[in-house]
Structure formats: C-alpha cells, structure tokens
Design brief:
Helices cover about 30% and strands about 25% of the residues. With about 210 residues, it is an alpha/beta fold. It folds into two domains: about 55 residues, no CATH class; about 150 residues, GroEL, CATH 3.50.7.10. The strands form two sheets. The protein has a six-stranded mixed sheet, with helices on both faces. Strands 1-9-2 form a three-stranded mixed sheet, covered by helices on one side. Helix 1 runs parallel beside helix 2.
C-alpha cells in the first residue's frame, strides 16, 4: 500500500483520484519523451564502470595513468548507452544514483532515467513485470538485452508542486497496479485518510479470503 498511494497537501479533497500504473515520488534525472510502448531496463548498480571490482587490484603509479583511464571509462559508458538505444530501451530505472556522465549520454541517446528507487519499489516493479535487474558490465557489454519490461507510457505528473514519474507497466500477472492520490488541506489529515483506507482494504482482503474447509 505504501508504494501504491501518495498524499498531496494543500489541495481540496475532491482533487483526489486513482491513476493507473505506478507513481514514483521523484523527478526524472533525464527525461526524453517517447510515444507508444517503450522498453524499460531495471538496474541496481552504477552504469559507469568502476576501475576495479571484486578480486581485481587496480594499481595507479602516477596521476597521468589515472587521467588516461578516465577516457576509457567515458567511452565504455557511451558505448553501453548507445547499445541501449540500439536495443530500443527508452527508460532506465535505477535503485542507485547514476554518475553525471551516465545522465549526459542518456539524454544524448534518448533514454529517460529515474534514480534512487527504494528496495520496495524495485521489488514491486520486478513482481509486476517479471523481469530481473540487468547487470550492465560483463565480458560482453554488447550482448542481447532480454530483461526488459514493457511500459504503455512514462511521463511526468505534477502532484501539488512536486514533479513525479508516472509509469504504466504491462503486467505479466493478474495484478494491475493503480495508484491512489489522496488530496487534503494538510499532511496529517491525508495520512489519517490513508491509514483508514489501508485498514478498509485489509478488512476486504480478510472478508474475501478463501476459507479452506
């Protein structure tokens, strides 16, 4: 329920509504409008490659060596973002904050970016879409990208004065997510309404729960 409702203070209660899909309470790090169905990729690690990794020792003997390594990182990042474009990926959903160079090349190649998803939001997206997070760096960064979700739309939505991300995923299960937007004069009243609604939904779940006899 926490991921499927949002409260907006300062608006009349009559402005409350139900929106199909998910509303992520953050703005785009990069927004590139795209029409029709789009492919989305979920990641849980930085897209900018690290100079070292597990069981790898990176030795820098001079400032010149370090500076020489930076263009390689930039080119590898650009190559990966171009690979996303060639694979028709239009949306990158990340549970971590991405480097500025990733956002730059995302804008350059027409890929929208949403950062800092919570673990609960990530798990919910996996449940709805049936996909697993994509590991961007391996032996072959140009391999086929198969773990993509399909979204009917992805667009900004204004909740009060805050810009949020509104995504309509094509669900692979019976669960079709909708987000409840609760409006009211102050946050405290809205939270009370949210708690009352959550209690009502819990009661309905119990009421319609299958009883084994």
């Amino acid at each position: 329920f926490a991921e499927l409702h949002a409260v907006v203070a300062g608006l009349p209660v009559a402005s409350s509504r139900v929106l199909p899909g998910l509303v992520l309470r953050r703005d785009f790090a990069a927004y590139c409008p795209a029409g029709g169905e789009l492919r989305a990729l979920l990641v849980t690690e930085p897209f900018r490659p690290a100079l070292s990794g597990p069981d790898v020792e990176f030795v820098v003997e001079s400032e010149g060596q370090y500076q020489a390594s930076l263009p390689w990182i930039t080119k590898r990042t650009e190559a990966l973002m171009k690979h996303l474009q060639n694979s028709n990926v239009k949306l990158l959903l990340s549970s971590v904050k991405q480097d500025e160079v990733v956002v730059y090349y995302a804008k350059l190649y027409g890929v929208s970016v949403v950062e800092c998803l919570s673990s609960e939001e990530t798990a919910l997206i996996c449940e709805i879409t049936g996909v697993s997070p994509y590991a961007p760096f391996g032996d072959n960064i140009h391999g086929e990208i198969t773990e993509t979700a399909v979204a009917a739309f992805c667009q900004p939505v204004l909740l009060g004065s805050k810009r949020c991300v509104h995504i309509g995923f094509t669900s692979v299960c019976a669960f079709q997510p909708h987000c409840l937007i609760l409006c009211g004069p102050v946050d405290g009243v809205n939270e009370q309404h949210a708690a009352a609604l959550q209690g009502a939904f819990t009661m309905l779940q119990q009421l319609f729960k299958t009883v084994d006899r």
